[in-house]
Amino acid sequence: MIEAARLRRTVTQIMEQAIASVDPRSCVKRVLAKAGDGVQVGTHSFPARRVVVVGFGKAAGTMAQAVEGILEERVEAGLVVTADGYGVECDRIEVVEASHPVPDSRGVQAARRIASIVDAAGEDDLVLVLISGGGSSLLMLPADGLTLDHLRETNELLLRSGAPIQAVNAVRKHLDQLKGGQLARRCAPAQVVSLILSDVPGDPLHVIASGPTVPDPTTFLDAHRVLQDYELWDRVPEAVRTRFARGLKGAIPETPKPGDPLFRGVYKAIVGSGVTAAEAALGAGERLGFTGLILTTELCGEAREVGQVVASLVREMVRWGRPVPRPGLLVLAGETTVTVRGSGRGGRNQEAALAAALGIAELEDVVVCFVGTDGQDGPTDAAGGLVDGGSVGRMAAGGVDPRAALLNNDAYGALSASGDLVVTGPTGTNVADLCLVAIGARS
Amino acid sequence: MIEAARLRRTVTQIMEQAIASVDPRSCVKRVLAKAGDGVQVGTHSFPARRVVVVGFGKAAGTMAQAVEGILEERVEAGLVVTADGYGVECDRIEVVEASHPVPDSRGVQAARRIASIVDAAGEDDLVLVLISGGGSSLLMLPADGLTLDHLRETNELLLRSGAPIQAVNAVRKHLDQLKGGQLARRCAPAQVVSLILSDVPGDPLHVIASGPTVPDPTTFLDAHRVLQDYELWDRVPEAVRTRFARGLKGAIPETPKPGDPLFRGVYKAIVGSGVTAAEAALGAGERLGFTGLILTTELCGEAREVGQVVASLVREMVRWGRPVPRPGLLVLAGETTVTVRGSGRGGRNQEAALAAALGIAELEDVVVCFVGTDGQDGPTDAAGGLVDGGSVGRMAAGGVDPRAALLNNDAYGALSASGDLVVTGPTGTNVADLCLVAIGARS
Fold first, then answer.
1. Residue B243 vs residues A248, B142, B159, B227: alpha-carbon distances, Å
2. Using CB atoms within 10 A of its CB, is residue A340 exposed (0-12), middle (13-18) or buried (19+)?
3. Which residue of chain B comes nearest to A163, CA vs CA?
4. Is residue B1 predicted with pLDDT exceeding 60?
5. Do residues A213 and A183 make contact, with C-beta atoms less than 8 angstroms apart?
6. Residues paired with residue A293 on neighbouring β-strands, in sequence order
7. How many C-beta atoms surround the C-beta of residue B318 within 10 A?
């Protein structure tokens, strides 16, 4: 038990360092600097220009703060839109809030102003685009002839249809003025630099915030086919059908495609992601003497099943000293899903932690932690769960049947009973979820 | 595509070597030898005695053959019971068949004869017990006052109740004459050597074949509580209630408990398991130049979710060269489960492979193989699936929608269309399932 307590503290420390590594300010500071009269991004430098900042997403405000702190008076002006409650004070860059995840007119208004700002950018200007999770619904600018309601309605139909995200996005990009590379097109002839804090495992740039600065491989034909395949063509608003009919006839310009020379003027840098957090966790663990290994930064699957697989890794470490020997640390990052069947409370990280707790019951000197880097997991005040071999016993002692709790999607109740909730409060960042698996030194 | 074909052949070769490593004959030969006038098992030798062989499970016949081949005339006599169709010819040891997985009177008859044989064993005798998967239902000897029908009825109620296997086994062991260490007790004062081919991930000896030669930590009280907790007490046969009522009053001897001195005369050796197969796969891969890593030998969880997690490992190897660099091989062993919702055909290995195929679509030079070491996966003629980045495309070209097939539990149809079924025929062994993940040398 003493070992368990010590290992729990150590893993908490590693988790905190991992989350700190993806703080939007730290992420921007790692890559952005003044260079001569211009701007340096990683190893690339961009000659002196007027710098204009636009941005969207949950971290847009904090990223804008960091940019101001670094570039100071080189920032001419700017506007970023973030989610309600995420606004921060900036000097040169205006920060506005809008509704997330359901978009509202404030978001459309901000998107319209962002469009005007980049429309006005000239050949000698540099547009710095700050992109983070949530950007897709915060930067909504309905195409000509469409309203926000048309987009919302179509979006809901798509999400309920079971269509994969690629298919959903093909439609979205053809109903909006900025998504799918169209923001970059409006920035031309200015140089564009995107700083991206990625919340999508694998960091697919065309998916993050619907890829406003990357080429769109999909066409009106693809988007039309999606609506037909999922039997939505007759159900979407008339105005959407009208637009698609015109688009299919070539009467509306396509989104910019791969190979379009305009993208030569666009530079993209992922400044932080689940990979950053996973590597920071690995580094922190190694400094503490653990043999560490990152297994994946694209973890996915149903949370309770992923928790079982992770428990199988713990049992292997206990029994056979692999895939890493004691003291050992496995790091996984990604995003699991929860199919809600019960009426309890919880989130994907709590549910995965509860499932893992069942699979490591009574093992000594092992800890599993699942945590959302944004500090929020489902509709709860917790960020995840940190369990050990005694967790299941503590739940039972607290009057909770852990298996029944899992069946009822009540991970919050179970982890609360065992004292295994991870509560960080809002962290101000949002990349992937993290899973840390540790085994102590005792053999 | 050429690389894919080559990598597929290489992985097939590794899989075949892994399965060969758990052939019951090879497994017995690795640990058993003549020693002076006695018997050598691993590093332990047992002085010259009369050797009597008993056994049960799907591999009992082939294990008996191997024992005869090694110990020759030192085998005095013996009887093993195996599943229908698994019988083989032996000289000194009688091999009988019985029904599996639903037990029948032939199994009871064989169990009764095995009990007589070990009852007659004396102080100078060595009883060699050959244990393999399926042994639990092949070695059924109802306790006094109970019939096979009583046991079958109770068993069915337990399996439908959702009680975990430990709870189910606590009841089973208290309704049978040989399970839960009772076979070992009847062998005393003879020396007992168990050779175990394990089909349960983690090799828990008290679970494999219901632990006839290991102590039983559970009591009549535990067993009674299980029936009450799962509301089965009023539903089990009257004869079961009568036995438990007597057991609770101490009128019937308990199963032998941990610490019982009788187990000093019992030696147990796991001669083969999923661990053996995984280590053989690792060795075969390393000889072919792969950097290899065993992640777990206790893999579990819903097959389609496990397939997704495995695909996330593949994507990590492709993108970041970890957890192993190119050419790399990850090995996992265990047993996944399938919740059947559709009407298609398949098995847990095929379903995991199909899910993995969706997660590695269009990646080059990667292969994922899921295979049952017994050569049988679900009610099909296939043993599993071997998929690559082109599998999903081949399914589509063959007119199969892979996502729809997965939803319909029709992995067999999908893998058949893409030419990705693994067909080995019955392998004569039965340990865990294997999952091999390979990435080729090309960077």
1. 78, 11, 20, 13
2. exposed
3. B403
4. no
5. yes
6. A330
7. 16
Name the pairing type of β-strands A328-334 and A366-372.
Answer: unpaired
User: Which tokens in the block code for residue B208?
Assistant: 């494999």
Whole-angstrom CA distances from B22 to B61, B268, B419 are 15, 17, 27
- Whole-number Å distance between alpha carbons of A278 and A294: 7
Please give the residue of chain B at the shortest CA–CA distance from A162.
B403
Query: Which stretches of A75-114 are assigned E, i.e. beta strand?
Result: 75-83, 94-98
Residue B332 has, within 13 A of its CA and on its CB side, a CA count of 28
- Provide the residue ranges of all domains of chain B, joining segments of one domain with +: 2-17+275-439, 24-141+176-218+255-272
Nearest-CB residue to B322 (from A294, A305, A306)? A294
| Distance separating alpha carbons of residues A112 and B90, to the nearest angstrom | 85
Rounded to 5 degrees, φ, ψ at B140 are: -110, 120
**Distance from the B202 Cα atom to the nearest Cα atom in chain A, whole angstroms:** 8
Q: Are B4 and B389 in contact (CB under 8 A)?
A: yes
Nearest chain A Cα distance for residue B426, angstroms: 28
User: The domain B24-141+176-218+255-272: what is its CATH number?
Assistant: 3.40.50.10180
Q: What is the pLDDT of residues B315-345, one digit of tens each?
A: 999 999 999 999 999 999 999 999 889 999 9
The first and second tokens of residue A42, run together, are 């990683």
Give the residue with greater pLDDT, B237 vs A86: B237
Contact status, residue B58 vs residue B134, Cβ threshold 8 Å:
yes
Rounded to a whole number of angstroms, the distance from the CA of B265 to the nearest CA of chain A is: 26
Predicted pLDDT at B2? 56
Residue A128 has pLDDT above 70, yes or no: yes
Question: Chain A interface, mutation test: which of B205, B304, B316, B407, most A Cβ atoms within 10 Å?
Answer: B316
Q: Which residue of A293, A309, A322 to mutate against B (max B Cβ within 10 Å)?
A: A309
pLDDT score recorded for residue A102: 86
- Domain B2-17+275-439 is found in CATH 3.10.450.50: no
**How distant is the Cα of B73 from the closest Cα of chain A, in angstroms?**
38
The rounded Cα A95 to chain-centroid distance in angstroms is 20
* Segments in A249-338 forming alpha helices (H): 274-287, 303-320
**Residues on chain A touching B334 (C-beta within 8 angstroms):** 312
Q: Residue B357 and residue B405: Cα distance in Å, rounded?
A: 12
Q: Is A172 helix (H, G, I), strand (E, B) or coil?
A: helix
